[in-house]
Design a protein that fits this description.
Function (chain A): A probable RNA chaperone. Forms a complex with KhpB which binds to cellular RNA and controls its expression. Plays a role in peptidoglycan (PG) homeostasis and cell length regulation.
Largest sheet of chain A: 3 strands, mixed
Structural class of chain A: alpha+beta
Family (chain A): Belongs to the KhpA RNA-binding protein family.
Subunit structure (chain A): Forms a complex with KhpB.
Order of helices and strands of chain A: HEEHHE
CATH topology of chain A: GMP Synthetase, Chain A, domain 3
Shape of chain B: flat
Radius of gyration of chain B: 25 Å
Order of helices and strands of chain B: EHEEHEEHEHEHEE
CATH architecture of chain A: 2-Layer Sandwich
Subcellular location (chain A): Cytoplasm
Oligomer: heterodimer
Largest interface: A-B, 22 and 21 residues
GO molecular function, one term (chain A): RNA binding
Number of strands of chain A: 3
Strand content of chain B: 15-25%
Structural class of chain B: alpha+beta
Distance between the termini of chain B: 50 Å
Strand order of the largest sheet of chain A: 1-2-3
Amino acid sequence: MGKLKELVEQMAKALVDNPDAVQVNEIEGEQTSVIELRVAKEDLGKVIGKQGRTARAMRTILSAASTKLRKRAVLEIIE
Amino acid sequence: MMEEKIFEAKSVDQAIEEACRVLGCLPEDLEIEILEHGSSGLFGIGAKKAKIKVRMKPEKLLSERANRAVMFLKELFLSGELKIEPQAQLEKDYVKINLEGEDAALFTANGGTALEALEFLTNKIVARRLGVGAKIVVDVNGFRENRERRLIKMAREAADKAKRTRKPISLPPMNAKERRIVHLALKDRRDVHTRSAGEGERRHVVVYPGPPRKK
């Protein structure tokens, strides 16, 4: 189930100026996985986007990918 | 890569203007090398033409954008262990990327919201590196075209029903792009008019009987 974590990492790294500062953690639950994303402070806006559009796009892609695993995944962007 | 082209005119500025006209671009899209400054001579005697060599800046090239997009998508699918292969196709003024493979269907479920999200993200990432330019359209085997055709059909049926029943007909919630397709599909009809109603996720088109009211 490490794939979803990597998926988020890949998206985040492509969006930010400091890819080395991208950290992704996965907390696996029985049915739901919580994926925590941390980025450099100045990159926060880049992963959230105008009116949260980028964050929403990442969540939508994550949930599309997670249906393959018959699991739910939640993306939390940690400030 | 586009090859270099040489333009000649009375002055350097005119040569640049000519280059932009021929290539259909702005001066800032070009890398310009001045070969001859040219001179008007004395009473036109001994006049020399200005000569420039131009090349489209790489970030303005479709192929460059296509490569970036494909690279991002390939890595993304690989990291998520999804069996999807992105195939780029260069159209006249945009890049089309078709997703092939057994997992591509994951993105067309729920009316293609995930496909929309993927397209948004891909454009954002390409624009970050290469600046805003030609759009990248992400599709799964003509899903988008089919969706558009279905929306137009739906719009026409709703219009006929609104006319017949003389009652407004509400269509299901749609995103801005889809609502636009519906509005455009009915814009030339004199017997109905359309308007969007509702907020956020619930925003949808309503088809009203009667001609559009003049503002």
